[in-house]
Amino acid sequence: MPTESRTTTGGRQFRRRTIFSGMLVGAFALASIFSGLSPAMAEERSWIGTWMASPQPIWGSDFAFPTKIPASVKDQTIRQVVRISLGGSRIRLVFSNAYGDRPMRIGGASVGLAGESGAAEPGTIRRITFGGKDDIVVPPGAPAVSDPLELTVDAHGKLAVSIYLPDDTPLTTFHWDGRQTAWFGEGDLTQAEDFPETAITDARVFLNEVLVDTPNEGAVVVVGDSITDGNGTTIDADTRWPDLLAKRLAPHQIAVLNGGISGGRLLQDKMGVNVAARLRRDVFSQPNLKAVIVLIGINDISWPGTGFAPNQVRPTADAMIAGYQQLIALADANNVRLIGATLPPFEGALNGTPLGNYYDPEKDALRHEINRWIRERGAFDAIVDFDAVLRDPGHPARINPAFDSGDHLHPGDEGNRAMADAIDLDALLGR
Fold first, then answer.
1. Which of 59, 100, 229, 296 has the most CB atoms around it within 10 Å of its CB?
2. Where are the beta strands (DSSP E) in 217-318?
């Protein structure tokens, strides 16, 4: 059973609970949707996010990982599949040019119920419009929010979203670790039920969010790095721990939005900006936001000295704690409940790869110091002890083999299931 105590943060009193059960104790875009509406009109709408992929800037060829997408496209359609949290009869789409340095023209877009291998279910494709028009020019740094459209989709249903880019368009805003196949095709294929692809990727391109008009309660956002983004899970299987948490929360009419970015860090930028820098865009802009779970910090500890960040110095515990305290202060200032997660074990991580020095005992000592602060200081409104959930009982510095994806860093499908099942929903929502 979870333990419980009372803590007051910024004048607000919350239950603080360790929200795991088992072997131990226990976009800025969204605000624009409502701008200009009269109070009566706003009351008629209950838009909430039902799926999200956090935008990232591309990087150069000098970085350890390829981007997995072309530098630019012209006269091509990109089709992407998403599995939403909560369903409804009206949806709208959000595309992002967050890291573009020039206007981006969307020449056409569509959405339908997803079939197999990039196809849409017959008769379900709907044209996406922006202010009643098929096309839109998206300024640098801006989102494009579609008009509402009628399309009934069930909870956990899958949508096929197509975007046609007629001009020479640099692919500057993407989401690297989509864990879902996406397809490129020649010409305008937005109305094609079958999709004749010319190339595939498992990254996301420009697609940022799906909103649903629903009387449901609201959304929880999870923010983190590759463990939250789903690295180590099966591609196209939707077995990330936020996906599995979404299934648990659906009967409570609450969506889960995945704000994970592989390579994300608490204090530094690279594969996306640092967490505090993106909270307003990815988290606080969400309507009817119920709570936030943050699992971040292992890359801050482990990247310095590796091929990811050869010239960076490892942060101190005090520097990382100050970073967490800023997240807490930002959440408190926005009246948002913030749940902190301990950092899972990672001994042996990435052995046999060019990043074989990702782990060492000094790095692990820093992880233990951070986890002790998260558990004992009561700074978060609640905690979830993923370290306790995932570690090998016989060798606590390592991830349990039953939960390991094989790289000793990322949980596999069963590890993600254990993480999702470990969360006490009452403690998450402050009930």
1. 229
2. 218-224, 254-260, 289-295
Position 45 scores a pLDDT of 57
Supply the pTM of this predicted model. Answer: 0.90
In single-letter form, the type of residue at position 258 comes to N
- Residue 390 within any structural domain of the chain: yes
Report the C-alpha gap between 209 and 143 in whole angstroms.
10
Shared domain check, 123 and 157: yes
Q: Using 50, 70 and 90 to split pLDDT, how confident is the model at 431? A: confident
41 belongs to a structural domain: no
pLDDT at res. 42: 43
Shared-domain flag, residues 204 and 252: no
Q: Tell me, yes or no, whether 227 and 196 share the same domain.
A: no
**Domain count of the fold of the chain:** 2
- Give CA angle at 120 (116, 124), nearest 5°: 145
Average of per-residue pLDDT values in the chain:
91
Cβ-based neighbours of 5, under 8 Å, separated by 6 or more: 15, 16, 17, 378
Instruction: Compute the CA torsion angle 128, 134, 135, 141 (nearest 10 deg).
Output: -30
Same domain for 9 and 64? no
